[in-house]
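Continuing the series of single-chain predictions for the mutant panel. This is the parent chain; the variants come on the following pages.
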Amino acid sequence: MPHLSKLALSAVIATALAVPVFAGSHAGGPPPAVKARQSHMQLYLHNLIPMVQMIRGSADYDAERASAHAGNIAALSKLNQSSYWAPGTDSDAVAESNALPAIWENIPDVIAKANAMSEAAVALSASAGDGIDALRAGFTPLNNACNACHEDYQKPQE
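Parent structure:
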């Protein structure tokens, strides 16, 4: 094997690691961007379910838990998610993806919907601990914001 400088060796390793991601080869499941956004959505769901249970009466209202879960959703909504939405990771290109190609065709609308969701999450975080009625009232705009994006940009579930 020829002698490679540290810089050249680093470049070779970086290229070898990057090729599967950019070439569309996804051994071991979907590409990292898809895994990241699916994990992020799972974290949203993990925090939404306890509040839905409180709203539906299948769990007792707990101001501390409601506040914690709403705060988590607000914090998650503020994370920079731009790397999750790499071109070529839509549902037409990656079988495990639920993101419709329309996302990349209408980025301004997607950003507006993400901002509306974040604003609703922050508002819910401020009121979730103020009683079940406040939780219900704050949850509705968040739910509507989530659904608005999913209706337009998520592959329908079979």
